[in-house]
Amino acid sequence: MSREPEARFQSELWRILREICSRGPVGGLSLRVTVEEPAFDGRSPDIVVAREHDGLPILIIETKRKSRGRYPYPYKFTPYDPSVIGQALSYAALAKEAFKLPATPLFATSNPDVLVLFGPVDDPWRYLNREAVIKADYERALEPGAFMKLISKHYIFDDRNPLKEEVAFRVLDTAVKIWLKEVEILKIRKEIGFWLIDQLRYFVDYMDSYYVREPLRSRLSRDQNYYGELDGYARKMGYTDGLTDIVGSDLSKVENLSRMMVYVLLNKIIFYKVLENYYNLPKLEPFALSVNSSSEYLDRLNKFFEEAVKVSGDFEQIFYTGLYDKIIIADDVYALFQIDELIKILSEVNIQEFSDIIGHVYENLIPEEERHRLGQFYTPRPIAELITRWCIRSGDDVVLGPGCGSGTFEVEAYWRLVEFKTGRRAIPSKDVHTKVLKQIYALDINSFPAQLTAMNLAMKNVRAPVTNLNIIESDFFSIMPGQEVLLPYKVQTPEGPKEKKIQLPTEGFDAVFGNPPYTRWIEIPEDVKRNVKDRLDQQLSKYNLHADVARGKEPGIYIHFIMWAKEFLKPGGRLGMIISDSWLQSRYGEDFGRYLLENFKVKALIDISARVFPVPLIGTC
Questions:
Q1: What percentage of the chain exceeds 90 in pLDDT?
Q2: CB atoms inside a 10 Å sphere around CB 30
Q3: Which of 73, 143, 365, 572 has a CA between 20 and 30 Å from the CA of residue 411?
Q4: Residue 396: which of 513, 505, 479 has the closest Cα?
Q5: pTM of the model as a whole
Q6: Where does the chain hold its CATH 3.40.50.150 domain(s)?
Q7: How distant, in Å, are the alpha carbons of 362, 380, 463, 523 from that of 359?
Q8: Are strands 440-444 and 399-402 parallel, antiparallel or unpaired?
Q9: How far is 107 from 130, CA to CA, in rounded Å?
Q10: pLDDT of res. 549
Q11: Could you tell me which CATH number the domain at 366-621 has?
């Protein structure tokens, strides 16, 4: 690949930085900005920001990869890549020696998408292999195990869109203040958890933008069999018009599906790397150079995932997701290198050392606005916490979240139960973690949110990867109280494939909670409508709540969720749900109100007047 694009980025970033410095001192310091000079021990960094009067380097920025290793990289290299960061630190270490500095200059790695900034390092050779640096073998520049130690101690922040002048100025201003010791690094640096979050989010953005979205669009537009297969999965998940509901009739919304597919792939890789620590699994290491195509790469990855299910006897919800397993990746070796880099980075993360933050990292992985855009109506945590704290009154409560979405309620239920058992909201022991997960049941018709919920709960204590998560992928109205639910996949055991079942508590649940869909009756798939009528016919007739579209009577499905959820509660059980307030102004509102009063002791009806949900025209109560 031509190196012209990366040279253009280097030139443009240099121009912006130089323009800022030409206007006057930055942070009281006059600066000069040079390209590929000065050289340190014969090595020329891409951009050097130095003190004007003596050329003392303040900041070194690497914008392209210089490698004598296994493969060259295009300009879209990942600034989070350990090899790239090792390269930048190598230049900073050589600059420290050349100028006899007490610590290295600040250093950064950057491409057009993101810049990652690191603080001065007193002893860079504790992280670097001098022989590899001398040979310019930057893939091996960092000593084994040094990467996460470097990140933990010297990472400051990352910033998107470095070609924006305000971002470039912030980087310069921060570098000067740190160099002049006008600010303590600990007061401005991001926590290590944010580094992990930003890196994983960047992987999703990068893979979707460059290597998944357009290949997926192309395949859907020309391969009717592939489209039909995905359409079948979509209809099973409750999409009335099948795949069209996700990607649009003209494929204009294909990004929604491509991003979900990348998230699912990311989740699988993360969780496999976690399970490596606790099961006798083959080690997942980079293997892009040993395959001939992206399809062969995915096939081999899937064999790893199948082995994880077989050995653990669980976690099908994470590794088998139907529609989202059918990801298409560009048949481009650089796409595979990016997945390899993710695997390398996750291999560097010491799960034991960072176990106290991994769960919180995963909880924050998908931004709120993206959850909404991908169809997961995000419930603000304070509201989910309020509801679960009211619903759960004992550390022994067994709870159900129908229509679990991305797992916000289930996570809050987890912490509520942990608090009851331990007296604090902190990562519990393996024993407590295991007990709590056995008390939480969740279901969703869509395998994407089902996987998110499974990951959210399983990652709460990565030192105790619990088997037999009670996550069910199913239409709520197809499930009966106390039922033994047959899951849609089989577990591979030494004796052969066995059916997987989850037994719902025969005595019922202590609490049911959630944020059910706001879908109108005419938008509900026909098979779901049939299930609703089969389950609730008598109650709907008794309270005059059957839909009558011709007369404008269209109860939202949240009405049916509440009515069916009641059947899963123990006597005296508690129900807490967020629903649209449209029923208060509807023709069926009085009848639904009568149902509530005759079947529940209504403790509170809270009107959330502020627009806390990113959904226009929907009030909540």
A1: 56
A2: 11
A3: 572
A4: 505
A5: 0.79
A6: 366-621
A7: 5, 18, 11, 36
A8: parallel
A9: 18
A10: 77
A11: 3.40.50.150
CA angle (489, 494, 499) in 5-degree steps: 25
Give the pLDDT band (50/70/90) at residue 67.
low
Take residue 346 and report the two structure tokens written for it.
Answer: 């996750």
Pick the CATH number of 4-190 from 1.10.760.10, 3.90.1570.30, 3.30.420.180, 3.40.50.700: 3.90.1570.30
C-alpha 145: how far from chain center: 25
Helix (H) or strand (E) holding 510: strand 509-514
CB neighbour list of residue 283: distance below 8 Å, 6 or more residues apart: 276
What Rg do the C-alpha atoms of the chain give, in angstroms? 27
Domain with CATH 3.90.1570.30 in the chain: 4-190
DSSP β-ladder status, 509-514 and 399-402: parallel
Q: What is the pLDDT of residues 280-330, one digit of tens each?
A: 999 999 999 999 999 999 999 999 999 998 888 778 888 999 999 999 999
* pLDDT tens sequence across 349-403: 766 555 555 555 555 666 666 655 555 556 778 889 999 999 999 999 999 999 8
State both tokens at 120. 């001065």
| Pick from 379, 375, 398: nearest CA to 515 | 379
Query: Residues 6 or more apart from 159 whose CB is under 8 A from it?
Result: 114, 115, 117, 167, 170, 171
> Which positions ≥6 away from 413 have C-beta within 8 Å?
388, 391, 392, 399, 401, 440, 511, 513
- Tell me how crowded residue 172 is: count the other CB atoms within 10 A of its CB: 22
Q: Give the containing element (helix H, strand E) for 48.
A: strand 47-51
Integer Cα distance of 162 and 143 in angstroms: 29
The rounded mean pLDDT for the chain is 86
Q: How far is CA 294 from CA 1, 188, 200, 212, in A?
A: 18, 41, 21, 11
